[in-house]
Amino acid sequence: MKALLRIAILSSFMFSLSAYAANKRFGLGIVLGEPTGLSGQYWLSKNRAIDGAAAWSLNEESSFILQSTYLIYK
Q1: How far apart are CA 29 and CA 74, in angstroms?
Q2: Which of 30, 62, 69, 74 is the most buried (most CB within 10 A)?
Q3: Closest CA to 3 of 32, 23, 27, 28
């Protein structure tokens, strides 16, 4: 039941945030599985972007992951 409640809260949060991505320079997503978290990408120009994710573990050994990548599209 707790897992279902967490999924429902994350889903409603993500749907409400998608309205802010109307300019198509910024997008949000979710990381499913283990670890679970949020991801995003911000376009700096037509072929360059920065993406990142923040995720946490839901098992007994709790952990937190934070990552970012600079992307160049050709």
Answers
A1: 23
A2: 30
A3: 32
* pTM attached to this predicted model: 0.62
Nearest-angstrom CA–CA distance, 41 and 27: 5
Q: Which of 10, 15, 17, 14 is nearest to 58 (CA)?
A: 10
CA distance 29 to 21: 11
- Whole-angstrom Cα distance, residue 59 to residue 48? 36
- What is the largest distance, in Å, between two alpha-carbon atoms of the chain? 45
Could you tell me how many residues make up the chain? 74
Per-residue pLDDT of the chain (74 residues; tens, 9 = 90+): 666 666 666 665 555 454 455 567 888 888 888 888 899 999 999 899 999 999 998 787 778 999 999 999 98
